[in-house]
Protein: Diaminopimelate decarboxylase
Organism: Sediminicoccus rosea
Amino acid sequence: MAAPAPVFDSPDPSFADLLAARPALAMDPIAGLMVEEVSLARIADVVGTPTWVYSATTLRRRARSLRDALAEAGLDASIHFATKSNPALAVVNLLHQEGLGADVVSEGELRAARAAGVPASGIVFSGVGKTEREMRLALAEDILQLNIESAEEAEMLSAVAASMGKRARCALRVNPDVDAKTHAKITTGLTENKFGVPIAMAPALYAKMCALPGLDPVGLTVHIGSQIAQGVASYRAAYQRLGQLVRELRAAGHPVLRVDCGGGLGIPYRDETPGTPAALAGAIKAGLGDLGVKIMLEPGRWICGPAGVLLARVIVEKQATTRRFVIVDAAMNDLLRPAMYEAWHGILPVSAAAFHAPLSPADVVGPVCESSDTFTKGRDLPALPPNSLVTFLDAGAYGASMSSTYNARPLAAEVMVEGNRFTVIRDRQSHAALIEGQRLPPADHAGWAT
């Protein structure tokens, strides 16, 4: 059963409001909706739809804004982009050029970060279920840090590192039991969540890690959730608790050189008022600024979410009794967030005429054979006849990275825009590629394993 649509207390932002809050977008009276200086209609003509489109200027501007806020707060900090939010090599490489490292959660992301040019010394490996193979790869690459999420994982990493004759630089992920006030599926800092260890257990486990062969504990890490859009009060509470723990560990004679403050800073998809980089830096400084620790951050969505849009084409408009359906060629296999999280994304027509046309409620849906393949219900939109182009906003994070080939739909192309130029950074998947690697079993069972 499809999840119920969220109920909002305020009217949806107007098209003009959505546009004004997104400096990478502009409406040209002739060319229509632009990303930087490139017409989305032009991209649709050349590359087709659905297509992910990223603004290089936005990625750079946001990375610099966060970096500057940390520096202005007097923090000795490094930023490690959460590649799970957008693992496109071109995106990771651009952010590496801006001085960012990478936060990875799998072998695939580690290999992608290295392929994008991120040095091993800038990579942090997070996640609750690292395999022995992944640990061996991380140690062979000599990455900056592995984040430990449990006593069992500490024992496992110790055995792997000792067998390789190495010492694993690691940090203990602490669960501070702080409510991030975000969606239940993306909160990670409560005792009921699978991540990290309860803060009360941390002193004993950290002491054990310091004694285990092959481990080199260097600090603590925390991540309380994603899309935190209620200011920075939750961060402030978490960092205060973390600061107290640092003092306790040091008093016991244990080294704490680094504190990884995680990510999760939200973006305004609709009319949210999330905290700013300056406010986040202030919360870090208040809780940890007097400890002389190296600060690390793992932002993802805040950097790349506003930098991307999903460009789609209308297949048909369908009137069913009192409901108007706009069926587009993008689907839940492309942008999963509305089906999975009941997430709200702004939708803009690409045509300048449609931008100023009369509006009426419509359900925007995709062609996948699931009732949950619904982007929005009852959204005020202009008439959108077949072949009209629409754009889903703030889709640069957890868009392409969560895509699938459900219903045997090829993965969409990805494009990067800079100034008045654009380039394809990932080809549209072919239908042949969908079945590559598959084979029919021999009818006579010859060659079947026993």
Summary: The longest helix spans residues 233-251. Confidence is low (pLDDT under 50) at residues 182-190. The two ends are 41 Å apart (CA to CA).
